Amino acid sequence: METPSLLHEIVGIVKEVGTNVHRFKVGNHVAVGTYVNSCRDCEFCNKKLEVHCAKGVVYTFNGIDTDGTITKGGYSDYIVVHERQVLYIMLYCYTIPDSYPLASAAPLLCAGITVYAPMMCHKMNQAGKSLGVIGLGGLGHMAVNTSISKKEEALSFLGANKFAVSSDQEEMEALVKPLDFIIDVAFEMRTITGSGVGGTKDIQEMLNFCAAHKIYPQIKVVPIQYANEALERLLKKDVKYRFVIDVENSLK
């Protein structure tokens, strides 16, 4: 496509279901993440790690689905998604309390799961372990939440125990030994691990975890008409954390 279609952290309410859909009904609150299909038959799909599908996932935007259609993201008033790839937010298989704000759920579907998945994979949630997070942006602030000037935010607002300026060598050296895990940096005999969102099982566990512990991304809800200005602010680094676009109300 010459003009890309965007948006991959989508939340909304079910308006219609197909005849073979059994887990969802009209009115359910649902979320769609970075991908909307996979082969469903490989080793990774069978382990609910669809993001690592051996044949490649179908991304939510600019992807080519199995029937040849091109996915167009979430800048629209509705989106059609296969049942398996929809993350249930309110009832049955993928459940979180009704009180969890839909707008707050959106950033969890990419930023949230990208930091949550490696934490769980490498057992960073063990009692007594310390986690260092480098960078306090859209992903970093979620790592601090799930494991504040910037220093005041990190310490007072996001709940971090310590803060260091990454360009200050002495401060960084003082933190090396006390930390069991460091996100975004590795040296000596440290393990380097990549993270690109997660499988459906991890995503649902993360949604449940955030709901149970009242963890909410820091967001600013804006109309779609503000999208260009929001992008300009991102380029100018004049943004804290995440914009969430209210597509439905923008199109009324």
UniProtKB/TrEMBL annotation:
Q: What is this protein called?
A: Alcohol dehydrogenase-like N-terminal domain-containing protein
Q: Name one GO molecular function term.
A: oxidoreductase activity, acting on the CH-OH group of donors, NAD or NADP as acceptor
Protein family per UniProt: Belongs to the zinc-containing alcohol dehydrogenase family.
Q: Does the keyword Metal-binding apply?
A: yes
- Biological process terms in GO annotation: lignin biosynthetic process
Does Metal-binding count among this protein's keywords?
Answer: yes
Show the InterPro entries listed in the entry.
ADH-like_N, CAD-like, GroES-like_sf, NAD(P)-bd_dom_sf
Q: Which segments constitute the Alcohol dehydrogenase-like N-terminal domain?
A: 6-88
Q: Which UniProt keywords apply?
A: Metal-binding, Oxidoreductase, Zinc
